[in-house]
Write a structure and sequence with these properties.
single chain; mainly alpha; 185 residues
Length: 185
C-alpha cells in the first residue's frame, strides 16, 4: 500500500468519525430545542388552565370543564412523551382537577336545589383550599420546567419567546394576587 492511499484511508476514517460526532451533536441540539418548545407549550396550557380555575371562584353557574379537560389531556400527552420527570407533579394537577370539578358540580347542584345554602362560608374555605393546592402544584411544575427553558444558563426572559414570557408573567401574577387575597398563604 502506498503512502497516499494510507493517508487517504485515515482521512476518510477521520471524516466518518467527524460526521458521526456532528450527527450526534445535531440530534442532541434538536431534542433540546424540541423539549424547550414543549416546555413553552406546557406552560401555556397550564396558564390557560389556571386562568380557568381562578375564574371559577366568582362564576355564578358552573358550565362544565370540557375545554379545560382537553387542555389537561394535551398536558398529559406532552408530559408523558417529553417530561417523564414531571409525571408525579402532573398527576397531582389532574387529581386536583377532578376534585375541583367534583366540588364545583356539587356546589352547582346545591345552588339549583337550595340557592341560599351555597352562600355559606364553607364554599369559600373548601374552594380556597383546592385553589391553594392547585397553585402549589402548578408552581412545582413551573419550577421544574424553568431549567428546560434556559439555554446556556441564561435567564428565561432573555431567550424565550414573547408568548412564553407572557405566560410566566401571567402565572406569577395569578399566584401573587391569590397569595394576598387568600388567608393562610
Amino acid at each position: 500500500m502506498s503512502n497516499a492511499l494510507y493517508y487517504l484511508l485515515w482521512l476518510g476514517a477521520g471524516l466518518v468519525v467527524v460526521a458521526a460526532i456532528s450527527a450526534v451533536i445535531a440530534r442532541h441540539l434538536r431534542l433540546r430545542l424540541a423539549r424547550r418548545i414543549k416546555a413553552q407549550q406546557t406552560l401555556e396550557a397550564l396558564t390557560r388552565y389556571t386562568e380557568w380555575v381562578l375564574a371559577q371562584h366568582r362564576t355564578a353557574y358552573f358550565q362544565g370543564a370540557a375545554q379545560e379537560e382537553a387542555i389537561l389531556l394535551q398536558l398529559q400527552a406532552v408530559v408523558r412523551e417529553w417530561f417523564p420527570e414531571l409525571a408525579q407533579e402532573a398527576a397531582e394537577v389532574f387529581i386536583l382537577h377532578a376534585r375541583m370539578v367534583d366540588f364545583l358540580w356539587s356546589q352547582h347542584l346545591l345552588r339549583r336545589r337550595d340557592p341560599e345554602a351555597w352562600l355559606e362560608p364553607d364554599h369559600d374555605t373548601r374552594f380556597t383550599e383546592l385553589l391553594r393546592r392547585h397553585l402549589d402544584a402548578v408552581d412545582t411544575v413551573l419550577q421544574k420546567l424553568r431549567p428546560v427553558a434556559e439555554i446556556q444558563g441564561q435567564p428565561t426572559g432573555q431567550t424565550a419567546s414573547p408568548a412564553w414570557r407572557a405566560s410566566v408573567r401571567a402565572l406569577r401574577r395569578a399566584v401573587r394576587s391569590r397569595e394576598h387575597r387568600l388567608p393562610g398563604m
